[in-house]
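Let's practice the habit of predicting before peeking. Look at the sequence and jot down your guess about where helices and strands might fall. Then scroll down.
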Amino acid sequence: MSGFGDNPFYGGGGGYLSQNSPFGSGGSPGGSARRSTSNSLRPVTLRQLVEATQAHSDAEWMIGDVEVGQITVVASVLSVQPQTTNYIYLLNDGTATMEARQWVDANTDEEHASKEEIKEQTYVRVLGSLKMFGNKRYITATHIKPYKGIDELLFHYLEVATSSLIFERGPPPRPSEGGHSVVSKANGSGGTSAYTAQTTNAATTPAQFAHLAPLQRQIINFILAQPKSDEGIHVAAIARHISSITHGDSDANMISQALDALMDQGHVYTTMDDSHFSVSL
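Done guessing? Here is the structure:
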């Protein structure tokens, strides 16, 4: 399904995969826990749009705690209502039903021709944004195109699932976050993963770090316990480890502040990007 990489609706992937988890691969550790993707294109289901929330009429729409701007859906067209100024499409994707409205540009013959291609009981891909008028939600569509086949429908649902899991749990580990541990298990070597919890006894901390606060020492110990690498250790791996040994008592902001303090004191530094850290010895 890699052929969808050149789909003009996505712009080379849509931008949502690397967006703003507090410990996402593209973010800094001091990023806000409220993740904004209002300028990204997010694949969604109609049910997600039905359940989206809005703090007030001028606020951004939210799916969970993520702001939603541009969206794309793949759905079946139940009905088409051509009007003087717009076309109204009633859509159903198997999760919910919602209208999509596309305004008519009388000066664009090509756009009019594309609208003629949209028939009832066919599938389309819709790109636009969620709006509400008179307590009724609908999609303001900027593009509506016939879908290219069953592969596109399946691809869309896989993208919906992937993006939702990334926003809920963070991105999957990169190689620098311990992906090599999977290989060791596959080879039957067993043992402790490079990113499983390590001992946090203060006695294991080098003397130069013994004066640090407990959370800072835990971060130092974890980084030092990993295989030496020029890439350093990703902040997501640090966060997972700290969360596992503190049973969730240390949140993202606390870990971010601890890393900032360690950098200010010169004990850790960033390596390949702002999300990878190593210890100054």
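How did you do? Helices lie at 46-51, 109-116, 150-169, 180-186, 214-225, 235-246, 252-264.
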